[in-house]
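Q: How would the structure tokens look for this protein?
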Amino acid sequence: EQRGHLDEYSFNLAFNINDRVYLGLTLGGHDLNFKKYTYYEETYPDTNNEGYDLSSWNRIVGTGVDFKLGAIFRPVEESPFRFGVFVHTPTWYRLTDANGADLYLNDEFVSRGNNAEYDYHFRTPWKFGVSLGHTVGKNFAIGAEYEFQDMGTAKYSEVDGYNSSYFRNMNNITKETLRGQHTLKVGAEYKPVDAFSIRLGYNYVSSPFKKDAFRTIPIEDIG
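A: Here is the predicted structure in token form.
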């Protein structure tokens, strides 16, 4: 069973200069809460229902903050053509991870393993982008946007030096398996009448994984 949410709260500031330059700034606050519970049971036949039960749980909670900056320019006053640039800073998270597991053999408690709680930081990649837009008359508009982020730069870091070797290993795995991700968006809109619009768009997102990437488990265990 898995439950959770990732909420974002945005605070925006925007203004323009002579309707030619448009500037914007967004402060984002993030709230993360994730829970996972797993239960596994084995019962052996013809042994008076002997067997074992294993239950495990994990919870991650924390908060984060980021900034988004963008600008749109109309270089020619008489033309609706415009282009834009934007930068999204990483989201800086402070997270707490708690986990544990209980083992029962023949309905009798045996052990509780890796019942631990620890704090750490996580930083997402920077994101950069550009956009173009143009309108033809009052009925047709086209636009395109490109953005890039290097997924290999995502980084874990310890709090107070705890589990530093584990996080170094996680960061090495991230660099070895993830790469830059490209996103391209193009679209057009046509309004045959004022009350009706026809839209067509295409969105391409490249894979963040390197060709030789594979799933792995860090050597060091948490705890």
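Residues 43 and 49 are 6 Å apart (CA to CA).

The chain has one helix and eleven strands.

Upvote if useful.
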